[in-house]
Design brief:
The structure is a homodimer of 483-residue chains.
Chain A (H helix, E strand, L loop, with lengths): L42 H13 L2 H8 L4 H10 L2 H11 L5 H6 L2 H10 L2 H9 L3 H8 L4 H10 L2 H11 L6 H4 L6 E3 L4 H10 L9 E5 L5 E6 H6 L17 E2 L4 H11 L3 E5 L5 E6 H19 L11 H27 L2 H6 L2 H29 L8 H31 L2 H31 L4 H29 L1
Parallel strand pairs in A: 1-2, 4-5
Antiparallel strand pairs in A: 2-3, 5-6
Helix pairs in contact in A: 1-2, 8-10, 14-15, 15-21, 16-21, 18-19, 18-20, 18-21, 19-20, 20-21
GO molecular function (chains A, B): magnesium ion transmembrane transporter activity; metal ion binding
Pfam families (chains A, B): CBS, MgtE, MgtE_N
Family (chains A, B): Belongs to the SLC41A transporter family.
Chain lengths: 483, 483
């Protein structure tokens, strides 16, 4: 934004005159100077876009946005401020594509939708696939949801409304309803002829699903294998070994796990009676996997669902509760310290050293808990090996504790010239890091058993334990040994 | 393991007599009692497997492992201890499938390879696709790598060795070399006939790539679209709009980003002269995306590349350096406290309250830095909006700081009956949380500019800043106000 005045002629623009459809040519960003940033929007393009918005030059804006993928246009809208966003959308007008809405971060989706004129919104959503519309409307407020549903054609509206009857974050919401299914007894030739005659094949599909007479999927064949096989071969001879069906009510996180674990490309979705109701493809699963990871990382850091695009008040609302919880635990730790005020007033060195014990315990605990939270998420930490893992983490904590006990014992001795102080901090270090290893593993395991997301709450519990134990062990031992 | 004696008859076994190829039926775990755990190996299956190993019952072991996906068998090997692992592999013998090696966590791959007899290893790797062999051998020690390369047939060995000439973690290593490419001027009918005549089509492919006479990819057509189109149509009429090529030297993290951002299913890989050399499919990109996330989470927590399966000494080696860095920063913070020993000895309440200021700053800083690290990874925090984001985070820190300043001011007043103490902690809180917001955003941005992974090093820097500033502001203000 600070570079609006820059020479915008140097920006890489769409390469015209190459005889190629510009839509099929790579986005300009791909030719950026820095190779590693090859897929991000480069700064110059964003600056040029904002320049055209400042100048109110619609033609130039359209020319700049035309070669960009909808995901990149969404990124532009996310990166500029609310004032520029409004002006950009007004200027862009009816060129606004429905796919941009799908790509937008949820935090500014509502704002952008409210900026679109009813006509533009209608054209935008009518272009979209029904599963994308579901993804778009599911978290919108009632009035906006209805505005979009009203804009749809009748058949699409019914499809979207049916999808919305499935629970949030379920396979039923994730799936597309358009499937290519054939009877299990067909041959390769029959399947190929059937597909070539149908004129409503889905845009993206990778398998032909074999179903029994009651529409229960019993296998699937990749299109590549179909192409490569003789016409007379039975389809059942060339089904994929990795075939799996997904219950419509299954949580989307489990769906993503299955795709990742079993390298699925697409999988049929079935209702309670095992009947085929839709199909989920790997690109949808990849988006969910990405979202789940994002959620884990943010939750581990005590940031609810934060993103850079959230409104200021939204951000405060997300972060304040976690800080409040942290304040509570910090006060708890302070109360432990307060128990030993007398000891501290006689040996001020204790006040100097005590944060070290707590900090090392907190760090060791965070290491253990992060490994445990990840292992739970990837199903590597299960009932079969939980005790072995806990023993192992305790041993790791004890070993690291012993190593740092020696270091800190010597530092304590040298710094304050008192071997007893060195011995106290060494002992407290061993105790606290052992506890850190134990708590770092057991807290997430217990939370998981209690059906609480371990990523969400483990950190607070573990650092509370290591703070309290750290201060108590150090100051308590000091009270016994030094006085 | 503790449940070996359990009634193993209740385990869900392969369903025989259903007339279905067991390979095509879902794994038994999918029928587990708990729906949410539907894709993890259930505890009973693992117990039954270990029971058969204990009993030395090869037939039962093979029967139990037969219906499992290679990824699940790899999980079993990861979950049991080294002793059981050795016995299981010895007993399983030549049934051992190459795919299991691909699925194994790197931490125990070498161990498992060393347990296989040369014959079993040879059979196992000969079944694998060449890109899977590359993935398998790239991080092995020299002797094991050679043992596997020697086991391969000549043509496969050359392909693997060529792939290994590309840099680690590059698109060139990730790609498969088998491609389906046709001249750009061909029609739908020509492409279909060509494919049906070829007898070496890759197992998995989703697009037909159009190339110009110099083998430069200029577009691709999905197999579904090919099926649905009339034979006479030119292929160039039905190419996908989202087409992108990937340079062979590109970092695999950027490849995964492109797949996720642009919803690619497969993309051709090109050499420096833009010639087609291979293709990357979304399932490979999804694995990389998953690995990158794992890396980010673990690095943010100061755990190098840890997993539960690492050997004990390996784990100590990974975690010790981070704890040592943390010890250094904790000592730095202690030295700040030591500057104020005189003040603390006169007001012990300061020792009680000071960890609260540091802890709140540390937490607020972690929140900001996590959001910033994620935004850098997803390319949402760029040169275009960096100053706005920094301003915003500073404002968030200031606002949260003000809120908790009021709370802590009151608590300080009530707890210690001294309004000046309340005022000091309130002021220190505002200062430290403002600094936390600033440092939490600027540190990762600066590290990223310096080409250091912000996930790796930000946490240490930020908490050092908040500890030092927190103690200094609180104790320094106390020294000015209270004395």
């Amino acid at each position: 934004m600070t570079e609006n005045e820059q020479d915008i002629e140097t920006r890489p623009g769409p390469r015209n005159g190459s005889g190629q459809d510009p839509e099929h040519s790579p986005a300009p960003a791909e030719e950026g100077v820095e190779n590693e940033e090859s897929y991000s929007l480069d700064r110059r393009t964003v600056a040029a876009i904002l320049f055209s918005v400042d100048a109110g030059n619609r033609e130039q804006l359209v020319e700049l946005l035309e070669p960009l993928h909808a995901a990149d246009i969404a990124d532009v809208l996310e990166q500029v401020n609310a004032y520029d966003r409004r002006r950009l959308i007004d200027l862009y007008g009816k060129e606004f594509d429905g796919e941009i809405l799908s790509e937008l971060d949820e935090s500014i989706r509502e704002e952008v939708i409210s900026l679109l004129t009813p006509d533009v919104l209608k054209d935008a959503v009518r272009e979209m696939d029904s599963d994308d519309v579901v993804d778009l409307v599911e978290y919108l407020e009632e009035p906006q949801q209805e505005a979009i549903l009203d804009a749809l054609e009748d058949s699409d509206r019914v499809a979207v409304q049916q999808a919305l009857t499935f629970p949030e974050e379920s396979a039923g919401r994730l799936m597309q309803r358009e499937v290519v299914a054939v009877p299990e007894l067909w041959t390769v030739g029959q399947a190929i002829d059937f597909m070539r005659e149908r004129d409503d094949l889905p845009d993206q599909f990778y398998h032909v699903i074999l179903v029994d007479p009651r529409m229960k999927p019993i296998g699937h064949v990749t299109l590549g294998r179909l192409m490569a096989s003789p016409r007379r071969l039975a389809l059942s001879e060339i089904t994929e070994p990795s075939f799996r069906t997904i219950p419509a009510m299954q949580d989307e996180g489990d769906v993503a796990y299955a795709f990742n674990q079993y390298h699925l490309i697409s999988a049929p979705v079935v209702d309670e009676d095992d009947r085929l109701v839709g199909v989920i493809t790997i690109d949808d699963a990849m988006i969910v996997l990405d979202e789940e990871h994002e959620e884990d990382i943010l939750r581990l850091a005590g940031v609810g669902e934060g993103s850079l695009n959230d409104r200021f008040t939204e951000t405060i609302k997300q972060r304040l509760p976690w800080l409040a919880v942290n304040l509570g635990t910090a006060i708890l730790a302070s109360m432990v310290i307060a128990m030993f005020e007398g000891t501290i007033s006689r040996f001020v060195a204790l006040a100097v050293l005590m944060p070290i014990v707590a900090s090392m315990g907190g760090n060791a605990g965070t290491q253990s808990l992060t490994v445990a939270v990840r292992a739970i998420a990837t199903r590597d930490l299960t009932g079969s090996n939980v005790w072995r893992v806990i023993r192992r983490e305790a041993l790791v904590g004890l070993t690291n504790g012993a190593a740092f006990a020696v270091v800190m014992g010597i530092i304590g001795l040298i710094w304050f010239g008192d071997w007893r102080l060195g011995a106290v901090i060494a002992a407290a270090m061993v105790i606290n890091m052992l506890v850190a290893g134990l708590a770092g593993t057991m807290v997430p395991v217990v939370l998981d058993r209690l059906k609480v997301d371990p990523a969400l709450a483990s950190g607070t519990f573990v650092t509370t334990v290591t703070d309290v134990v750290g201060f108590f062990a150090f100051l308590g031992l000091a009270g016994l040994v030094l006085i």
